[in-house]
Amino acid sequence: MSTPQQDVEDWIRKTIAANDVVLFMKGNKNMPQCGFSAQVDHILRALNVDFKDVNVMQDMSIREGIKTFSNWPTIPQLYVKGEFIGGCDIVREMLQAGELTALFDDRGVSYDASKLTA
User: Fold this and answer.
1) Are 66 and 13 in contact (CB under 8 A)?
2) pTM metric for this prediction
3) pLDDT tens for residues 24-56?
């Protein structure tokens, strides 16, 4: 018999496995509901990365479950090819250092950096 916590973790695991890039965020890609989620959403959109958005505001068990799953206390959370990358500050720093596009190259995630402004 599985617990609700196990069910949430299974759902999270399946969602991450089924999508190359997943952003657990407050709101969705059409309407982010916090500045940090909006920044990561903007970065991914600027790179023209195809990503799955998961609105943690719609389900408290997912909102809390993702924090337990990643052992990371804040939202948003970015996953690439099953690996937890980080939150807003980490994604922004990786972008500025050229590490985010290098990660996408390494993992075979398509993107278009032509819209990026320095």
Assistant:
1) no
2) 0.94
3) 999 999 999 999 999 999 999 999 999 999 999
